[in-house]
Predict the structure.
Amino acid sequence: MLDLLWLIPALPLAGFLIILVFGRLLGEPKAGHLATAMVAGSFVVAAGVFFDLLNNPEEERHHVQSLFSWVPVGSLKVDLAFLADPLSITMVLFVTGIGSLIHLYATGYMHGDPKFSKFFLYLNLFVFSMLMLVMGENLLVTFLGWEGVGTCSYFLISFWHTRESAATAGKKAFVTNRVGDWGVMMGMFLAFGAAGTLSYEGINHAAEEGIISGVTATAIALMLFIGACGKSAQLPLYIWLPDAMEGPTPVSALIHAATMVTAGVFLMTRVNPVIEVAYDWAPTLIAIVGVATAFFAATIAVAQNDIKKVLAYSTVSQLGFMFLAVGSGAYVAAIFHMVTHAFFKALLFLGSGSVIHGMHHEQDMRKMGALRLLMPITAFTFIIGWLAIAGVPPFAGFWSKDEILLYAFAKSPILYVVGMITALLTAYYMTRQVIMVFFGEARWHDQSEEHGAHGDFKPHESPAAMWIPLVVLAGLSVVGGAMQLPFSKDLHFLEKWLHPVVEFGEAKIKGTWAYDNKYVLLGIAVVVALSGIAASVLVYGKKKVAAIEPKVLADGWHYDSAISNFMGGPGRKSFDAVAWTDRVVVDGAVNGVGRVVRTAGSYVRRAQTGAVRNYAAGIGLGVVALLVWFFLRGVVL
Amino acid sequence: MSLFAASAPAAPFPVLTALVLVPLIGAVLTALGSRHRPEITKLVALVSSVATAGMSVWLLAEFDTHDGGFQLVSQHSWIDSWGIGWHLGVDGISLFLVVLTGVLFPLVIVGCDPHHDEKPYLAWLLLLEAGVMGSFLSLDLVLFFLFFEIVLVPMYFLIGGWGYDQRVYAATKFFLYTMVGSALMLVGIVTTALLARDDLGRLTFDLVEIAEGSDFAASTGRWLFFAFAIAFAVKVPLFPLHTWLPDAHTQAPTAGSVILAGVLLKLGTYGLLRFGVYLFPEAAVWSREVFLTLAVIGIIWGAIAATMQSDLKRLVAYSSVAHLGFIVLGTFAFTSEAISGGVMQMVNHGVSTGALFLLVGMIYERRHTRQIAELKGLQKVAPIFAAAFMVVMLSSIGVPGLNGFVGEFLVLIGSFSTARWWVVIGATGVILAALYLLWAYQRVFHGEPDEANSSFRELRLREGAVLFPFIALIVFCGVYPKPMLDRIEPSVKALLERVEEKTDFVVPVSDHTGHGEGGEG
Amino acid sequence: MSLLAAATPTTTWYLVLGAVLFGIGAVGVLVRRNPLVMFMCIELMLNAVNLSFVALAKRLGDIGGQTTVFFVMVVAAAEVVVGLGIIVSIMRRRPGATADDIAQLKG
């Protein structure tokens, strides 16, 4: 199966090309089924590769397949090549697995949309790009995928492009991501300059051997981290993610929860040896940014009323946890949380899509309520997702979050405390969401007039194409934690699997206070999760305590609006000034030259009187002058 | 034995001479054609441009990939007493520019309708082609100057006769501005030949002979380089000598804009390499910081100015300033990757910006406006057109997988080792490129179309056929740039060897055993 | 007797006469406004030059001076033909015009 590595990205690419040419012919639902089949096919091949790797001894789980020489100039020799190792295959498995589930879901969700085929066109292109990103053997192939997912994200966010808000959100996502891309490019250039190659093997080897170290490694790590901040929506570049909710919900689930946004975490994990040999403050900075983002976003999520916006900020927050893990040297935990988060966040998003679908495209949670009776499967699966993200054992989210906080404590108790507070807030706002949507009194009766054409408006359960993925994801959210249970070394399946990739950079916390007391920390985590839930039930369920949802939180600490105001105000003015200077000063100088010549000419033309006698006088004077000159020069007359 | 001596025996068929003469003859025949049979005139023009295109593609096939010197050289004496000869040659740097020229003109002739006086229009276009071909192929200083100047006249008439509302101002500005630079270059050419006479023993204007045989003092070389560089700097255009470009591009008819952006601007960057760096390497190295700075300023300034334009065509014009800034950055970084990237980018920019101008021209044909404020929601009524625009736009933004990225990336990564901080600042241009292009795209294509825009016609078959080669090249060169890079690199390497030989500049070679700061941290 | 000897014309006398004639002609061109009179003054200047050529040819014994006179006379004749033709046609259109009035080539 390893020889068929290229098939994994090739299938979605083929899907893209087929739909590009025959999309209109295929129509609904064949285009959707084709796209789903392609991604599912990739999953099957990926599973085969996984087992092939598993059959090899640990040191040999590293296979490179080079397709052709891509950019060969000077000392730069980059191939379009794929790398199959534990990390990349893990990524491929959940990208294609969840991807195919979401494709299936979308065939139901996008039913009736006039641009049905086009949706799957973009979706397949996205999966292709994401696979290039994670399977790349070198930074350039990854960058191809990196920008590719950004471009597809742009297409998909602005999918309903006749809506101004969607169009603006798409543009915002692309441009903000581009800021991060500048960082990735700087990182690539530095790495190439220091290691002489862009391949991961070469760069990581150089780091391990000490060829790259100190300043260079720190610079590379931080530049790549800037890119990660853009792609994975960390402070200060997270602003595109909440707006990205303009896209159809399957897009939010696939791209902005499970796959694209994890690219930053993946990249940092890929180059963990470089981070390891950088100055110590670099990973610390990463951890601080991660936990700060996590906390920041969690506070905002508390005050959001749009069902998807809550999940968007929640994603930013959970990504923050992943970077906290990266900064603390807990790469296995980061990947662990990435995978479990993919399960439950995709589940939550798809569930919210199901709710939106059943509520005939209403997204405001204040207009929902008591939906568990009318949408039982959605409610049930959503609740499982809720328990997972809140960090309630034995659901998946608990184990992965706990692992992260363990390593965070080992690095610094302060990080742990902030992380714990964030976990509390997470439980709080997620419970709030569940109560507002599925419990309490039904506040949607007022909708009957707006949706009058349906007769009596009644939210309904979604079709099978939509609830089957929900069920599958729910199951994964329940058992997903089994990948890495903390109880014994033998149960650390994920760690053993990822060992060859992260061994250089993984923090060794054996013997720290945190490690020795990990069951205490485990217990604290359970208590915190349950308290968060309880508090939220008190406020939103029993209504015993008034809700605290200050405007500053609803407006995201005014950060995004500040940036928008700056861009629209002083930003735009300074750009205008440049354009004005170019037109008036620089071009004015050019026109000025022309004007000077014309003015000078108008003076000179006065000598042309047209009167013959003046010309004759001129000739006479000239002759006299010449004679005088000759005479003075000593020419004898 | 220098690599630049004519290494391959002249081909039996003097293809280079033909490349220059066929369009010239075509121009004459078109001009002589009868006014009453326009279809014959068009056919003659089309045949000669297609023939030229065919020959240029044949040239591509005949080109020896591994040879860094001048190939298929055509050398005949012309004005012997002054040492001016008919000396044409092609190498890796000029090869793709010649092919681009050859291919671009028939597409433009088919795809762009002048609306009136088609006969002189086609005649001027073909004369333009002859001039451009000659400029790219000349290896004699006076011959190059001749063709360089020939290019100006048809362009002036094309803009002035078939352009838009401010065409006369734009055409005059273009002509005079470029001519001033060329006048200085003429002084430089003559001085160079006269000074070289002392070293060579006879008066000659042959580029290779002067380059190989003469030895200019540093200060002399710098003055001479300056004279040449001014002409090319105006042509590129390099900030702050760029203000002719927005007017010329905007006021020119579609064909004029495509050729101007696609090929004419490259005369400047090509000249910097072929005449600036080749003849005066010491001066080029000495002045590199100035050029790098101006290039980076151009990248940022051009992008910012583009963002605030209200005229779609003017926006694309300013984007050209920004893109050419990258090419100049690569040229003066003096590494193999950077210069190769710059040469590749010359072609890439020609293809993608040429296509952009074609598309903008199509918008004008339908809506008779170039103002962004009057266009809205076009993607809804013309999705295929929008898709074509999107692909070309993404190429201009530099998205990997398309051609624009490869060139830009090579320039940046190649320049990083010798011009680090310029790259750090210049690379932010990629952010700005996304900003101004996507914002324009959003205003023009996204949203709900109003009444004036809802009758926007979808892409026609003929238009699609003309756009198809552009898009095909955009995708092909992005996915598989290796054949192009393989042919460009040997000549670039030869040029860099010469730079190293004549100056004390050291071209860094990335050391695979690594030379980072070991033992720290 | 000596008075007659002193009155023998030397070359200088001819040159002075030539100069005076030339001066009169030059001043005439500059001062007179009637185109025909200006033309006559130009003729005067040409003849003055002729006189100088002949005097010097005799003085220096070089026949070249005298052949030059023939050239000058031919050129003068040609010039008169063309010039008078132009002047007459102008005067016919605008009788009474002076040199100052004919200023069509004013820049």
The radius of gyration of chain B is 22 Å. The beta strands of chain B are 71-79, 84-90. The longest strand of chain B covers residues 71-79. Chains B and C do not touch (no CB pair under 8 Å).
